[in-house]
Amino acid sequence: MDVIVYGHPTLRKKAVPVEAFDAELQAFVEEMSVTMVEKDGVGLAAPQVDRAVRLFVIDATQGERPPLVFINPELTWFSDEKEDYEEGCLSIPEIRLNVNRPVQVTVKALDINGKPFTVEKAQGLLARAIQHEYDHLEGIMFVDRVSPVQRQLVNGKLKRMAKGQKNKKAA
Ligand code: NI
Fold it and tell me: What is the distance in A from the centroid of ligand 1 to the CA of 171?
């Protein structure tokens, strides 16, 4: 699967809920998981493969088990404690910046069969990835959440990235 890059309009859409838990969804999630592992990502959200539906996969253990699948997720609790952590994104190559986010988060979601599950007080890389991937479903990218000074430093790069995206479309 191709991962779309900063400047592509799908990355700015609010994704719609998944409705059908069928073989097509299974195949799609499987393909997303393979793509994430191939590209060495910690997580991948459906809008990043140009499909604006509410689902993402996360591999916070770096390949030790099948990736976690979150469908129609809701973030229901955040810790008051926040921290800076350097984030990157497969849709924003070569840029890594500190983002300040809650240290822990609780997420409710559906699994691949449509069965509800909850991850209570996720922490560490998993909590970070859940929040980053959830943002993709809202059309938010991590560079939107950095300080104005940090944003200033990468604005040129981002503009070139978005321009490259447009040229690709015109070609
Ligand atoms: Ni991302």
Answer: 26
Q: How far is the CA of 20 from the centre of ligand 1 (A)?
A: 25
pLDDT digits (tens, 9 = 90+) for 82-113: 999 999 999 999 999 999 999 999 999 999 99
* Domain of residue 44, residue span: 9-170
Whether 133 is a known active-site residue: answer yes
Taking the centre of ligand 1 as the mean of its atom positions, its distance from the CA of residue 89, in whole angstroms, is 4
1 domain-assigned: no
**Tally of structural domains, the chain:** 1
> What's the pTM?
0.94
The pairing of beta strand 116-122 with beta strand 105-110: antiparallel
Catalytic residue among 64, 83, 133, 138: 133
Give tens-digit pLDDT for 131-169. 999 999 999 999 999 999 999 999 999 999 999 877 776
Answer yes or no: is 88 within a domain.
yes
Q: Assess if residue 4 is contained within a domain.
A: no
Q: Is residue 27 situated within a structural domain?
A: yes
